[in-house]
Amino acid sequence: MKPFKCALPVLLVALLAWGAVSTSVMAQWQGASPFVQGPTLAATIRNAVQAASDQARLTAKTAADMGVRARGVEYRMQNFEADLHNLRVQFQNLSSIVNALAGLVEQGKSPRAENAVSELAAGLDIIAEAFVPVEREFMGEHMSRETIVSMCQVLDESLREWDKELRKNSTRLGTIR
Amino acid sequence: MKFSSCFSPFRGWLSPGLCLPVVALLCGCGTTDPRATAAQPGTGLREYRQMVADLTGVLVAARESVEGVGKASDASASGAYVRFEEALQRLEVVSVRARARADAMEQRGMAYFEEWAEEITGTADEVARRTAREHFESLRQNFDAVMTDSQRARQAFRAFLEGMRAQHAALGWKPAAAAIEQARPALDKVAREGRSAEEALGRLVTTLNEAESAVMSASGRTPQGGGS
Q1: Which among B9, B68, B66 is positioned nearest to B192, based on CA atoms?
Q2: Cα B201 from Cα B153, distance rounded (Å)
Q3: Mind spelling out the 3-state secondary structure of B177-218?
Q4: ipTM score of the complex?
Q5: Taking the CA atoms of chain A, what radius of gyration do you get in angstroms?
Q6: Is residue B226 classed as helix, strand or coil in its secondary structure?
Q7: For B102, which residue in chain A has the nearest alpha carbon?
Q8: What does the DSSP assignment read for A53-88?
Q9: What residues 14-33 of chain B have any CB closer than 8 A to a CB of chain A?
Q10: Does the beta-carbon distance from A108 to B126 stay under 8 Å?
């Protein structure tokens, strides 16, 4: 009996605290959250980092697969347009998760964590420059297969490096005990 | 058995199905606050120096590939141009980390000085950080020097990268030897920009080494070996 009597107030306090934290975090999302809300800010940040890592790897794979298809002789303009749209959507999803992560980290008021997430966001902005040559050709008259393949390789490799950096930065983001 | 007898009055509803979420909840409440983990003094400076060193190696290879195209004979131009393309692609990938750090430092400015203070004091406590910031005001010169040289290096690197990209866009994927011949003056200019970027990165490494020494002595420690 005794252990449970002691545990009951702790449980109630924990549940109330969880509710308060979840409400404040949830208040930031008007739509669906791109990752699961944790019981604490740190737990939610961990989930956001994991979601960003998963999305980075998915986007890198999308780019790599597109690069493989683009090398094939059967690859046509309509394939390219669909692939580019898909790749852009994946990349945009990644940017959205990182923006959400930045919002969460801001609540912690740690310059170290905020600097880390700012570098990750800047990294994505730089990686997005890989789209420029392809989009320039797309707007022009001639579309080169090599430009598409090169974009895919740069995006694939850069995003895998970015994911490594994200994981290295997990300490700075305060996600490791 | 012990567990069962201890909670015997609740045996009916204290099932694993309820226990597991509750335990997970309590564990979650003990997780780290984003402010709770402080790094070793100089960690950020050492990381940045490593990024700059990694970038310098790839930058030198890229600048040499530009020179290689500029000096290539008609027979060797095609091979030299493939090396140029590969070097540009490598530069795009490897430069992301250092460029992102430089961009973030320019955007956030003093927040990086606060990170130094956090590393030096060994605490993420806001009051301690503020005290350290006042105490370590002497480090401001080092900080300002890092910011200035970082910005210069970023600009010099950017000029070189843009130059390489522009030459690649102009020449395309399999340029004729005549087109390369025509591009030689522009390629020479890009190579000179590459050398300027190398010098700027070299100065930044020196400044980062000096800043690390200053941070380490402010924290009563010795630097952990300078980078190239």
Answers
A1: B66
A2: 5
A3: HHHHHHHHHHHHHHHHHHHHHHHHHHHHHHHHHHHHHHHHHH
A4: 0.79
A5: 21
A6: coil
A7: A119
A8: HHHHHHHHHHHHHHHHHHHSTT--HHHHHHHHHHHH
A9: 22, 24-26, 28-29, 31-33
A10: no
Q: To the nearest 10°, the Cα dihedral for A163, B155, B49, B56?
A: 90
Could you give the angle at the alpha carbon of B114 between the alpha carbons of A38 and B104, nearest 5°? Answer: 75
Structure tokens at A51: 């979601």
Residues 87-116 of B with CB under 8 A from A: 89, 92-97, 99-101, 103-104, 107-108, 111-112, 114-115
User: Hey, what are B3's tokens?
Assistant: 């567990």
Element (H, E) at B124: none
* Residue A51 in this model has a pLDDT that exceeds 90: yes
Please tell me whether residue B14 adopts helix, strand or coil conformation.
Answer: coil
Distances (CA, A) of B48 to A10, B55, B104, B210: 44, 11, 12, 13
Which residue in B has a C-alpha nearest to residue A146's C-alpha?
Answer: B173
The pLDDT confidence band at residue B75, using thresholds 50, 70 and 90, is confident
> How many other C-beta atoms are found inside a 10 Å radius of the C-beta of residue A54?
14
Please give the single-letter amino acid code of residue A126.
I
Name the phi and psi angles at B42, rounded to 5. Answer: 80, 0
Rounded to the nearest angstrom, the gap between the alpha carbon of residue A159 and the centroid of all alpha carbons in its chain is 10
pLDDT classification of B38: cutoffs 50, 70, 90: low
Spell out the residues 6+ positions from residue A37 whose beta carbon is closer than 8 angstroms to its own. Answer: A22, A25, A26, A44, A47
Summarised one tens digit per residue, pLDDT across range A141-165 is: 788 999 999 999 999 999 999 999 9
C-alpha to C-alpha distance for B163 and A5, rounded to whole angstroms: 72
